[in-house]
Amino acid sequence: MIKKLSNGGFATLSDNKSTLIVACVMIIWLLVENFQKFDFSSNLEKQKQRNYKLGEFYLPQPSEKMSKLFEQSYLQYQPKVKPKNKVANKVEKPSAEEVERLRRLREANQKGVLTTVFSGNNKLELKAVVDNKANGQNPISILILVTNIKGNKSSIKTFTKADQIYGFTIKEIKDTRVLLERKFNNKLQKITLAMYKNS
User: What is the pTM of this model?
Assistant: First the structure.
């Protein structure tokens, strides 16, 4: 066991072989145990093998009232499905009376500021307002492109204030627009023919 030395002290660990062996075994056991705790390769394996259980993920859901409101607001953007004709290849041409009725209806609906005016089979477009003071002629004239719709022929014609243009009377000439009037279907029709859309 423990030997008493002559100097009255106890023997050191190095003097007792069994104590030294037990101490070495304990140190080795502690090192191995701690090394297993810090063994990174085995920890990575354990992490890969873990099964993480995630709870179900719920997105916020709109109420039924809001869902209907969303659907109604997006209905205007849905493509409209046209029913298919059984005879899709057969296209009927409108009769001459129908074409004339549609032309007169289109003319009757003309109002406000327009860049193109229709009168009978003619399409009128204002191309220029010309100041003729230097030439001593009529002070202001206009150039109008007249296109015959049926014949698809065009020509530029010159007019001045109070001239007649295919049923219209020129009432006023401004920088980029002309005021036209006529009696159509027993109603006074006033149209401003402009060179540009926003003039």
Answer: 0.51
